[in-house]
Amino acid sequence: MGELQAVILAAGEGKRMRSALPKVLHPLCGRPLLSYILDSAAAVAKDLVIVIGRGADQVRETIGERWSYAVQEKQLGTGHALMQALPYLPEEGCLLVLCGDTPLLEKGDLERLLRAHGDSAATVMTAVPPDPTGYGRVIRGQDGSVLRIVEEGDASPAERDIGEINSGTYCFDLKLLRKFLPLLSPKNIQQEYYLTDVLPLMREQGYLIGACLNECWPAAQGINDRCQLAEAAAIMRGRINRALMEQGVAMLDPSSTYIDYGVRIEAETVLLPQTLIEGETTIGSGCRIGPGAHLLSAQIGDGVVIRQSVVAESVIESGATVGPFANIRPGCRIGPQVRIGDFVEVKNSTIGAKSKLPHHSYAGDVDIEGEVNIGAGVIVANFDGRRKHRSLIREGAFIGCNSNLISPVEIGAGAFVAAGSTVTDDVPAGALAITRSEQKNCAGLGKRMLGKEERQEKKESAEKE
């Protein structure tokens, strides 16, 4: 059979997606559609050629230069697309032809197709969907071989009643394909060069055309619109979640747990409902994530608890707790056994071991050393209206409630900032900083400020009348 080559057809316009983004680049569980079929093809084929058209530069930039590219300047059908790839292929051997919008096809599916191919001139992967509308129908002979494939627009009523459809995935004898592909003609309702028309040309010359039925219909399905994209995402999430659970990750409700392809999670971690884990996230063992957590390219250590919070592009070290309702923005490192409580926002900061930010605080561009206590309502103000500044809080310091630290300042080790202070200068180690104004109590003025005396006078005057 010779060395196996593969061509990925990824030049289609994808009009039904109604998007400026090329169809094959639409994200599916954190990756472009095209990435999945490339992985599957690369697992069995020696070399790959990607045929690109609409958004060609964008596709190349996203996918990279690992593979060869052929450009289809005008979208004149699948046969025409494959013609553009021929100069990049050897003279003979075995060729897989795959669609760039079939992300659910796996290595095993392609291996079954190759086994079914044998010595055939061509073999087509078929499927039987619940509704074949819109797909080309597979016409078989009495011996089970394929006579032809008829596109729906060209099919007769009887042919449209056939349930078996063409998935768009093929295996060809490359030498024969080179002979018959140039014979295609655009004499059809779409005025395109159908790759399927190669099959009857081969058969007329006495060559065998085989079929390989993929019994898992969704795996063979192409993505043509956003509804099908969502259906494929649900299947892919199921695969991802099942694999993680088989490795020892617990999920209370897998159907409401959304995990991107490539996320790594260690055993004994529990994922609670309504949790979204995206990007290049890694999670250690024994963690409890959720409910309602959103992690994006985060590195989470062992034994971490994150509840109803967002963690983006940051590191949470072992034993830390985050949430509920905390926002860890990019560039943060939360140290071991740190406590980040409710309604706390941390941005581009480091928090040392066993420090506490229990509630209602903002820490922006600050390095906080170990065992520091940050009281409720503390703000590290990092922006002066023109530039960002960075502050430092040394080990063991105590920052009282409703204090403002105006960056850049340094709070020394063991220093104490009294509640309600606004600190604009450095505080030496072990010192007390207090910047409150003197309290004055003005007798009776509170009632007047609230208008209570005036209302009382009006009430008494009305009663006298």
Structure notes:
- This protein is an alpha/beta fold and 465 residues long.
- The chain has three domains: 217 residues, Alpha-Beta Complex (Spore Coat Polysaccharide Biosynthesis Protein SpsA, Chain A); 85 residues, Hexapeptide repeat proteins (UDP N-Acetylglucosamine Acyltransferase, domain 1); 85 residues, UDP N-Acetylglucosamine Acyltransferase, domain 1 (3 Solenoid).
- It has eleven helices and 41 strands.
- The strands form seven sheets. A ten-stranded parallel beta sheet has the order 13-16-19-22-25-28-31-34-37-40. The protein has a nine-stranded parallel beta sheet with strand order 14-17-20-23-26-29-32-35-38, with no helix packed on it. A seven-stranded mixed beta sheet has the order 5-4-1-6-10-7-11, sandwiched between helices.
- A hairpin with a 2-residue loop joins strand 2 and strand 3.
- It is elongated, with a radius of gyration of 33 Å.
- The N and C termini lie far apart (112 Å).
- The model has no long low-confidence stretch (mean pLDDT 94).
